[in-house]
Amino acid sequence: MPCLILIFSFIQRVEGQEKEITAGIRLQKTHNLYFENGITADFTSSKLWDQRLHLGVSYVTSRLGTALGSNAIKQDNYLATIQYNFRRTKIINPIVRLNGGFFHANLESPLFDDLPNNSALCSLEGGITLNLKVPVRPSLSFGYNLITGDGLSGPGTLFPLFYQLSISYKIL
Amino acid sequence: MKKIFSFFIIVIGVFAILLQSCNKEPDIDKSTMIDGGALPDPSIAHPEKYLVSYAYPTPTQLQLLSPVVIAVHGYSATTWEWDEFRHWSDSVGHFMTSQVLLGGHGRSYEEFKKANWHDWQKPILDEFNRLKNLGYKNISVIGSSTAGPLILNLIYTGAFSTGNMPNQVIFVDPIIIASSKLLSLVNIVGPVISYTETSLDPKEMGHYYQYRPQESLNELQDLLNITRKKLEDGIQLPTGLNLTVYKSLKDPSADPYSAVLLYKGISTSGGEKPDIRMVDSDLHVFTNLQGRKAYSAKDKALQIKTFREIDLIISPGFLKR
Question: Pick from B172, B179, B298: which is nearest to B246 by CA?
């Protein structure tokens, strides 16, 4: 929530510039683990390297993925993102992202109170986004979590490799 | 044109480097490593010293009524992993211990590389069926680490047929999620790395494989994925089978979240949760202390306390004697 407040206050300050806000869904699969799906929003402006730099927030959760109707662990990922677009005006636009955020797993039983279930998130992503004539922004990327569980510290279901597909709609 | 030519040269160069690194063979010292094939697990030459079915092929009525526990070791280990438990249980004398060697284990790097997880699993069922056919009435199974998903698979696939189940199943540090998250990448990087090397304490040499071929690591990851997905769908234990799980709070091999997945994914025939016991340890398979470079008095006390609890689970009748 503090991230959202920060980003929206920033948007207010760049009022009057050429800007773009998109919002949509993010579908994410961790390699050899869960589907975690959720929502994503992205902002850019002409003042941000001529719209090459994007700021975003995402929330993905196994509650809307593998844990929906199954015994998988319910876990939440809150992400703030900085994205760089290499070929902003081309249809196929390579991107890199740096994500930071917070991870929480709900272990449900007091038996597991001594296990770590919260962690910082830090990941790198690389992929492409498509600049279509319609106001829809699909984006496909691979990501690597730099912080994972190791059995001694960190949540055990925080795995390294993930891939995601976002489909956002230009709302401004 | 020049750019395209340069690009192809780079691609060919990268492929050449990858091909060179593929199919590497480890440098095995046959005199100290089980991987070399010259130091096979002793249960291969002398099954009668390890397996109850071989030790007592014509059991007495008293033996048939006595509890037997089949003790199964984990990935890359040997029967040695349950030696301390066997010695302790023999000294107590409440039940007999049958130490099973997993398929592909305790032999050689090549045998390890060739074996799939069904091969690892087969000797568990073989010993169980031999004991049942001999007439043993009270059989339990205890498994450490990878033996957990192997035994669980035998339960939910119905391999232990109805009315022919073990009475008690006990897991010690079962693995559903590996602590090293790099294992999840083995199907991508495996062909390039060919194998991984484990660091063993000097006294552990000759009891664990030092090298783990990528083929075998892929088998392990497959087994873990299959088990995790089955747990997500839910596993109900058959009537009369009780499950107890011991799990270290910190574990460098089997992530403690493995216990969470077992808790969430398994229910007893009466709809209850299995008996999960989280223990204050940072050792993997905390019941095996021999050969470790260092362990504390607290580790030893926990080991003996757990042996006593297991004794009560397997042979509760001895309380009354």
Answer: B172
